[in-house]
Amino acid sequence: MPKRATIQDVAREAGVSVTTVSRYLNGRYESMSDRTREKIADVIARLGYRPNALAKGLKAQRTQTVGAIVVNMGYPFCVGFLRAFSRALGAEGYHLMVAESEGDARRERQLIESLVANRVEAIALQTSGANNDYLEDLAREMPVVLVDRAFSLPHAYAIGTNNRDASREMAWQLFDLGYERIVYLTEDERGIPTRTERLEGYLEACRVALREPEVMRVRRGDASSFADAIARVDAEIRRGRRTAVYSANGLILMECYRALRQLGHPVPSALGLATFDHPDWADLVDPPLTCVRQPVDEMGEEAARMVIARLRGEDVPEKTRVLASTLVMRESTGREQSARIGRDVSR
Hints:
This protein is an alpha/beta fold.
């Protein structure tokens, strides 16, 4: 028996989004060109597509379901955000459907289309940026909240943290503590706003402190890229330069933490260790780890507030929320203190 055509098949063949096909099927032709209507009609006829009668009958009903797509569900930031997001939605009677993109743009597009086909009423996601045109089209139809990674989409909402300011403050603190070199570990930052902003903050601190930047780009899962970075750190300390390793996220530092400690340099007198993010193990290692702690719970709660307000037809005047992170200095860099960096911003 031949496979029955789906709405995703129609969208793919017509070169449009699932949302556009859905609008066509429901007779909502506003902002749709005659050419697009004809193309969809031709594909429907050619594939023999027939909308599911039950699904169409349920269309007018609310699903009370919201979708969320994160890059990696093993990442502490993603876990914390999803937990807070789900808890806040649940308090208002909404359910959460979660998916993981693994940072792959094609998979992200498929997941978005799948969530739409399952009739979620809103979507929150960490996007790669490769599907922005589709997301902007979708944001005209339902609430879309960009989380952590903000792109300029006029109809979408966004919530993130002050990455540049917090990263700059971390580097300043490390220089102030007497570290002559700060080796900054990051993954390829191109196309990822959070990585770009954190790197820019570090570089700005180096310029102000009149220090030469030491940026090492690593690839998680590639031991050789980490070996080069660890060798650089070892060489700097052996030259008598007190050196700190500052990583752009906790997963990077976790991957090289053991190798750095095995160098045998005393922490924090010769080697300092710090990271953006607040990984679960930060308090478990000895000495405890210096971190930039993002307001993950607040981000989840704020994203839920945006979604629920829009679903209720209420206005959300602040399209973008930037929440302040907290610098948590611990013994891995030689100082214990905690300070919130900057203030929350809406725009």
